[in-house]
Each structure stands twice: as structure tokens, then as C-alpha cells.
Design goal:
The chain is an alpha/beta fold. The protein has 3 helices and 12 strands, in the order ββαβαβαββββββββ.
Length: about 210
């Protein structure tokens, strides 16, 4: 499979911009460092739960694991969480927590807003993102490329990350299988998408990420 990408250099240590598949909300709480703060975006550490609630965000963005702890705390112990009105962005960080169908349903049940997945590289750079059509993950061509590991059966996807500048990472194992779709998405965007993503597992059947 031929890889197509564009180099887009960024200064070392530059913070990432948060990408929204919908018109951005007034207030966003980000549960992960490395994103550029603004008037409508604030970052909160794990121990700042009370400040997070007082901030009254319209939307949350954070790693799947951090969002899961918030959701399970609300369901199991009645912990206070923000009342969202916009959406949740769940970060899938390579080789870490996966946005399974069960996790997606939990976030929808607890936060009561649409859930969108985004795949991040090892430095927090955006590699692929899910739009409102939920028909796969749009690959960021200036930052990433994906290919299937050669072999029979369900081949693992390998990711090439071109950020941060000067430190590209080539053919990183993702722990996911899937295929690259070239047709236009229902949202109208053209370009490659990751579809039929599944988490590789030796112990149980793979899980479909939709």
C-alpha cells in the first residue's frame, strides 16, 4: 500500500490545537496536558475534580481512561460530574485505552451528549478523528499515515506520525486492525478514513469500534 502524506513542521514543544467535529462549545474542559489554552479551553489535572465541576464546561475532552474514571465514579459512588450540553471527545492514545463500544455507551449514558473518538500519537498529536457521520476516522494527512502490517488474516495497522517536528515515528504498532477507506464520507469530506477498527486481542474476540 502506497503511503501519501505531507510534512508540516511545528516548533519543538508547541501545544496542539483541539479539533472539534461540531461547532465549538463556549467552555471546554481538557483532561490532558499538551493542548493550547484559550478563553474557552481549560486543562484540569486528575486531582482538580471540584474545580472541574465549578468550571461548568459544555464539553469534555480527554483520554478514554480518564473519562471512564469520571463516568464510573458518577455511576458507582455518586461523584459529582459536569452537566454537559455539547459533546465528549475521547482520546485513543496508541497502545493504550481503546474506545470500545461498551465505553462509548457508558459515556453516552453518563454524560448524555454525543461521543467522538480521536486517535492521538505518542506526543499527543492528532492522527485521525471521528466526524458527526460516525463512518470511520478521518486521517490527518499532514500529520499521519497508516498501513497494514504485511501478513495473512487481520493485519495490525501501523501508524507513521510526522509530529513533533524533527522527531517523526515510523510504522508504530497500534494494537488495532481495520482498513483504509478512500471513498467520500457521508459528511462530505474526501480523503482516507480508518474504518472497521478492532482492538487486537489474544484472549478474546476482537471488539469493533464504530
Amino acid at each position: 500500500m502506497r503511503l501519501q502524506f505531507f510534512w508540516k513542521f511545528r516548533p519543538e514543544g508547541e501545544r496542539h490545537e483541539l479539533l472539534w467535529p461540531l461547532p465549538p462549545p463556549a467552555r471546554t474542559a481538557v483532561l490532558m496536558d499538551g493542548f493550547r489554552p484559550s478563553a474557552g479551553v481549560r486543562t484540569f489535572r486528575e486531582e482538580q475534580k471540584s474545580q472541574l465541576v465549578r468550571y461548568r464546561p459544555d464539553a469534555l475532552a480527554g483520554p478514554v481512561s480518564r473519562l471512564r474514571r469520571l463516568a464510573e465514579g458518577a455511576e458507582d459512588r455518586g461523584s459529582r460530574i459536569p452537566r454537559l450540553t455539547h459533546s465528549v471527545i475521547a482520546f485513543i492514545i496508541l497502545k493504550q485505552a481503546f474506545l470500545s463500544e461498551e465505553a462509548r455507551e457508558t459515556f453516552w449514558r453518563v454524560f448524555k451528549v454525543p461521543v467522538f473518538g480521536q486517535i492521538l500519537g505518542l506526543s499527543g498529536e492528532l492522527l485521525a478523528w471521528e466526524c458527526e457521520a460516525h463512518e470511520g476516522f478521518h486521517i490527518q494527512p499532514e500529520c499521519a499515515a497508516f498501513e497494514a502490517r504485511p501478513g495473512e488474516g487481520d493485519s495490525e495497522l501501523l501508524a507513521t506520525s510526522l509530529a513533533p517536528a524533527g522527531k517523526p515515528a515510523f510504522r508504530l504498532p497500534t494494537g488495532l486492525t481495520g482498513r483504509i477507506e478512500e471513498s467520500a464520507c457521508a459528511c462530505g469530506l474526501k480523503g482516507p478514513r480508518l474504518v472497521e477498527l478492532r482492538r487486537m486481542s489474544m484472549a478474546r474476540p476482537v471488539e469493533v469500534l464504530r
